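Final report, closing paragraph on structural work. Over the funding period we assembled a curated collection of sequence-structure pairs, and we close with a single example.
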Amino acid sequence: MMQGRTARAGVGLAAAWILAVTSACGTRLDHRAIVTGYAGNSVPAPGSEAAAVPTAAAGPVAATTNSAAGGNLGAGAASPAGAGGSAVAGAGASPLRAATGSAAGARPGSGAGGVTANTAAASSAAPASSAGPKPGRASGAPAGAGAAPAPNTGAVPGAPIVIGSVGTSSGIVGAAVGPGLPAVRAWVASVNATGGLNGHSIKHVVGDDGGDPARHQQLVRQMVERDHVVAFVFNFAPLSGQSSVDYLTQKRVPVIGEQGSSPWFYESPMFFPQQSAGAVFVTAMLKAAAAETLPEGKKKLAMLNCQEAQFCVDADRIWPGEAPTVGYEVVFRRQASLAQPDFTAECLAARNAGAQVFALAMDGNAIGRIGSACARAGFHPIFLTFHGALLVEHAADPNLDGVLTPLALRAWFDTSNPVVARYQKALATYAPGEGVKDSSFMGWAAAELFQAAVNRSPDPTTSAGILEGLWSLKQETLGGITYPLEYVRDQNSPKVECWFTVRGSQGKWAYTDKGKNLTCTK
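Its predicted structure, as stored:
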């Protein structure tokens, strides 16, 4: 089973649709190009929101601690090493590098390519230098031959709760899925600055896997066995995350929250999605679009899906059969490369077929190029895009005017919701410069789910305790930002199709009349 999962992860499971891929040659991207990027990166339009691409550090592993209450834990791997007063020590041959920012507001140094541990200790919490819970085996976890002990079983009063996040912080993938990490770190800083959770500070260990499944598994094992991580919060690893599923399932360490494209969140009882994800959202997208466009008499559907990623493959497989059931007539269907520099031929073919709605399982920058090509061809359909590919600047692109995007969570701009307002305030305080956006809010929602579990946990310093908290949640909406969450003990998470819907026009995103409230179909 491990071999099969690793192999699937190695071909880029469910990720490339959200990559910030830019115009280059028309050839297909290989795994390395997707992870590291390539020449020809597009430059956002003036005034648009550019995604920060983390800077890679030289060493394989780094650990940083910010000991000031409310210290700046903002951009994490995106920050240059030593920025904001952080000091880096031991950067030689040793695999471990430690950085400590002791001044209030100090910003941790770069951890790209390795592990970063962050603790902003509140005065009432345990000291940031605490070694964490004592080693032991999580309740119910099978013993692995020669394996190091799993997380502890006995709570230490006031001990920090150690959480981890492993994903791809560098390169093109990092620019696309990485924005959720600063949101998690801002959540950690804001919680610790107000006394922690139930008397416990939060220690956050972060690792950049570079999109490599083997490295992802290595970092996960290290965090569990050496750092005593009791839960992973927002593993943003679309290319590599599946490699650790079997290990975490065996060790019974929960993974809480994902970045929208990880089908394995429905394949193990240790994975807890905070939103509809993967192929589940493929069908949700089409149902959401039909609710908006069919009443306008727009039922002729074209679809253009990428070739490189599982989400695109799922869309190309699911949409043709799903479309007639919701009232659409498919008039055009094609696949294309994310790296394709021009889409004029596809736009002309869709226009000539009479398409009125153009569904795109592509990445954000490719969507911009498609809009330009269709405008040149005199073709102005309603574009339907995936929220993982949403760029805030799409709303300001006249070629995409009216773009329709179903969201898996309440909109990142909806400050009428207290959770969204709190997210925006924390990001501004602890991660200044990180723009609010859907890909960032997914990280915050993962942290909110973790907090809900802690609040119901008999012992939040253990994996077993966190699991008990998760399994005790009943109809939990996290303050109205997601569908009612429930998880059944030792069963895979249920597949639930739910969405909000927004449209982008004249530089602004807004809910549609039908999409302002959560809609669920199953």
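The chain is about 30% helix and 15% strand. The chain has two domains: 63-274+416-482, 279-407+500-520. We thank the funder for supporting this effort.
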